[in-house]
Specification:
It contains 7 helices and 2 strands. It is mainly α.
């Protein structure tokens, strides 16, 4: 059982991250890609070509959940499909140049907005603290899920 200080920290962290994400989403361009589309484009940018099943695994959704979204991204020219080299029954999804351009433009816009808020709302020392905390957040994001470890041991 987690200690009370860990539980309190988890509650505060979840709340703070959720509030920041809501703020970033509220600043999204009304005609721009939604969060789900940006996430898919980001996965393809970082990981390279993936099968729909692999992509769903990285997104932690069922493949069927992505079907419409992938069709929309393909119709918009943001991704392409090609046959899998080793398994002709599968296709590989790949980020197109237009998809990469869209993703990078949105990332630059959002990062610029966040950087401006960091500059105006936090001191240099606070920004340094936040940067150090990012390393901790990265470690948490990469850590195996305790619930999955427990399930695997059963």
């Amino acid at each position: 059982m987690p200690r009370p200080d860990a539980i309190h920290t988890a509650v505060r962290l979840r709340g703070a991250v959720s509030a920041l994400m809501r703020r970033l989403r509220s600043e999204a361009a009304p005609d721009g890609p939604g969060t789900a589309k940006l996430s898919v484009l980001g996965q393809l940018y970082r990981l390279g070509p993936l099968t729909p099943t692999q992509l769903a695994g990285h997104e932690r959704v069922k493949p069927q959940t992505l079907t419409r979204l992938l069709s929309e991204l393909e119709a918009a020219g943001c991704l392409t499909r090609r046959p899998h080299e080793a398994d002709g029954r599968q296709t590989l999804l790949e980020l197109s140049p237009a998809g990469a351009e869209l993703l990078m433009a949105e990332v630059r816009r959002r990062e610029s907005s966040l950087a401006e808020a960091l500059q105006t709302q936090l001191t240099a020392a606070e920004r340094a603290q936040l940067l150090a905390a990012c390393e901790l957040l990265d470690r948490l994001a990469e850590a195996p899920s305790p619930s999955l470890q427990t399930a695997g041991a059963a």
